[in-house]
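hey so i finaly got around to running the thing on Probable nicotinate-nucleotide pyrophosphorylase [carboxylating] from Beijerinckia indica subsp. indica. pasting the sequence first so u can double check i didnt mess up the copy paste, my clipboard has been acting weird all day
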Amino acid sequence: MTSAPAPISPQLPRLLVEPLVRAALLEDLGRAGDITSDAIVPAHQQARMALNARQPGIVSGLSAAKLAFELIDPAIAVTVHHPDGTRIKPGDVIAHIAGPARSILTAERVALNFLGHLSGVASATATLVAAVAYTRAQIVCTRKTTPGLRSLEKLAVRHGGGGNHRFGLDDAMLIKDNHVALAGGITEALRRAKQGAGHLVKIELEVDTLAQLEEALAEGVDAVLLDNMTPELLSQAVVMVAGRAITEASGRVTPETATAIAESGVDLISVGWVTHSAAVLDIGLDFCP
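ok and heres what it spat out for the 3d tokens, dont ask me to read them lol
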């Protein structure tokens, strides 16, 4: 009996990642390049260095980090030992970098910026995923992302075991309180949305109270965003919905509160801070003598 193959970690096409890495490198190189390394390190000198984990967590961002080295100098070779989506502990060597020493140092900071930030996003997501593991709820991210890095940050959430909410304003409708206010009410907002949505476009409505939820269910909606409700209120909302729509909880979600929120029976828990405020995972580039 053969074992099932390990799941393949999701990745983005190079075509999407390369412009982001190029922009970061151009920002760092400025007008004259790496004047420190150019002055100190001979052009012919070779080196072998290691990307070392200094904290436990989940790896993400290796595709961007690898590209940073390769775009600076195609002669740099990157050997990955812990690919995106894998769990690491302090002291683990994530990858070895070998090639022209000057070029490695020039790409170092950009590579570490991507790898540390995105691994931090993945690690924060994994902590929340673990907190709700025995429930039906899935942790998902939002559009609260770093400008320009949305695709990479949402990928990092997936590396951490979470899922993605909509990627932008154009792939699903989310009717929030200001939409409702400008439309004159929930029912009218939903009717207008249905008239404007294509047959493949899902419609979600944000509600703050059970009365609003009742009105939304009467009109019909694909998903309801239960905003800043207590676990007790969320449980009542799940009973009211009774499977007629996807239920999503948001607001005040932390590793400490996530379990109680998930136990209410909601389908999704959306969290903004995992992308916009996750702590960087400490990863260093160290010279191998």
